[in-house]
Amino acid sequence: MAAAVLAYGAAGIAGTVAHYTALILLVQLGGAEPVAASTFGAAVGAVVNYWLNHRFTFRSTVPHRRAFIRFMVVAVAGMIVNAATLFAAVHLLGLHYLPGQVAATGVAFVGTYELNRRWTF
Q1: What's the whole-model pTM score?
Q2: In the chain, what is the straight-line distance between the N-terminal and C-terminal CA atoms, in Å?
Q3: How far apart are CA 105 and CA 83, in angstroms?
């Protein structure tokens, strides 16, 4: 169990790097609104996470046509939590988008691990 959590975390780091890269580029270079940019970045990160989690974290034998759909359901739920947390941090609390995103990432990570472990893979 501990090894799976560590592997999930490592895959999460790779997905988070993809997510944050898209977020920062869209906000800093593209002038995008942070919540929209973060949602796009989360979708990019989800693709990275799916592949790494299916292949390495859970070593799943579940066919992609089933696992991918389930993973995307969990990912969309995570994106909603992420967007709501970031919206609250930026628009209600007045925080800069990056600390808000760090908080949103932590909140989303906690919920998605168990859903993916128990249901997706």
Answers
A1: 0.84
A2: 14
A3: 10
CA-CA distance, 31 to 110, in Å (whole number)?
Answer: 30
3-state secondary structure of 50: helix
What is the C-alpha separation between 4 and 9, in angstroms, rounded? 8
Place of tokens 């359901």: 73
> CA-CA distance, 20 to 97, in Å (whole number)?
11
User: What is the C-alpha to C-alpha distance for residues 46 and 18, in angstroms, rounded to an integer?
Assistant: 9
Total number of residues shown for the chain: 121
pLDDT at 79 over 80: yes
Whether 78 contacts 112, CB under 8 Å: yes
**Element spanning 76, H or E:** helix 64-87
Give the number of other CB atoms < 10 A from CB of residue 17: 12
Domain count, the chain: 1
Asked whether residue 116 carries a pLDDT value surpassing 80, the answer given is no
- Its domain, for residue 11, covers 2-120
